[in-house]
Design brief:
alpha+beta, 6-stranded antiparallel beta sheet, 7 helices, 22 strands, globular
Length: about 350
């Protein structure tokens, strides 16, 4: 018998021996050696999802459900409830005169309003009205409830960093004693304090998330249009802006980054990839996206996911506005994030 065969046999016995002590040899390469995750590209088309949201509204009230949400689970992550290994996404609906009761949890949450007006989110005693295209910040461990004072249903995209809290064993939640909070700050208070490129002289924001609770779409759209007048679009992203924490200049959350971009009609982007898994929502326009070997046609309010390190390419058949969020903030803080164009 050759010495190589004996050595391999000895190694196999050794591996079995140490397995009894919950150990494994590194040389068997059980660790990941390539970028990317198990997540795959996916799309949730508004024309298919919207009727299901209506049915959910018929089947259960916001109070019974606590939050009437249809979770968007990645096809390759069955049973996790996550759209990427680190991020959660869901479509939440609230009907006129409904209230989604007050609670708080350690994961940070974002809302991107897709349809309807008249709803609000109350965060730590400040009511924030929600209009289509608005980006709303709900920092972790803040009391929040939702209500609809309008006459039609309101639907928004929820994004949470739940997986981070789960991994670290720090996922806590708590219900408020009453269904709603008493108002302790006037509407628009956070925008007045922090939203005009000015900061209170002696005030300090509480926590690492943005102290601005709402980024109105009207201002974001105007900023994109102004940007487009003074320079060519990025070859992969068109004109793209990052939502920022005005107190630090950094991302709006310590874990999640959020963006809005405008692709002009006829835009055909170059291939792009980055290590952050990204969830997109088409707010205006039509186009398509190629993710690896997969192509999706895009229409308003479609939601799609680009997994980590998958090359993708955007095209616009008409002026197209895309909201997106990802785990880039966490990756940058840890020194992991990278991109390739």
């Amino acid at each position: 018998m050759s010495s190589a065969v004996v050595a391999n046999s000895d190694r196999m016995r050794f591996s079995k021996e140490i397995a009894a002590l919950n150990m494994k040899p590194l040389w068997e390469r059980v660790m990941r050696l390539a970028p990317g995750t198990a997540a795959v590209p996916g799309i949730w088309r508004w024309k298919e999802v919207r009727p299901l949201i209506e049915r959910a509204c018929e089947l259960i009230t916001a109070k019974e459900a606590e939050r009437r949400v249809l979770m968007l689970e990645n096809p390759a992550l069955a049973g996790t409830t996550f759209i990427t290994p680190t991020l959660y996404a869901g479509l939440q609906a609230i009907l006129p005169d409904e209230i989604a009761p007050t609670h708080r949890h350690t994961p940070n949450a974002l809302r991107f309003v897709m349809e309807g007006e008249g709803a609000y989110t109350a965060i730590e005693g400040e009511r924030v009205m929600m209009r289509p295209g608005d980006f709303v910040v709900t920092p972790g461990w803040t009391w929040h409830d939702h209500g609809n004072l309008g006459t039609k249903p309101v639907v928004w995209l929820d994004g949470l960093d739940t997986a981070f809290a789960n991994i670290m064993g720090a996922h806590f939640r708590e219900d408020y004693p009453q269904e709603t909070q008493a108002a302790s700050r006037p509407e628009g208070d956070s925008a007045a304090r922090y939203g005009a490129n000015l900061l209170p002289l002696d005030g300090k924001p509480q926590g690492p998330a943005s102290p601005v609770l709402s980024y109105p779409y009207e201002r974001t759209r105007a900023a994109l249009e102004q940007l487009s007048r003074h320079g060519d679009p990025h070859p992969s992203h068109g004109w793209k802006l990052r939502y920022a924490n005005p107190a630090t200049g950094g991302h709006v959350f310590p874990t999640m980054a959020a963006f809005m971009q405008w692709l002009p009609r006829g835009f055909a982007g170059r291939d792009y990839r980055s290590t952050d898994g990204t969830i997109f929502c088409v707010f205006e326009g039509q186009g398509s996206v190629d993710i690896g070997e997969t192509r999706f046609d895009l229409a308003p309010r479609d939601v799609f996911v680009v997994p980590s390190w998958e090359p993708y390419r955007l095209k616009a058949a008409a002026d197209c506005v895309l909201f997106s969020y990802s785990d880039r903030a966490a990756q940058e803080a840890l020194g992991f994030w990278r991109e390739k164009t």
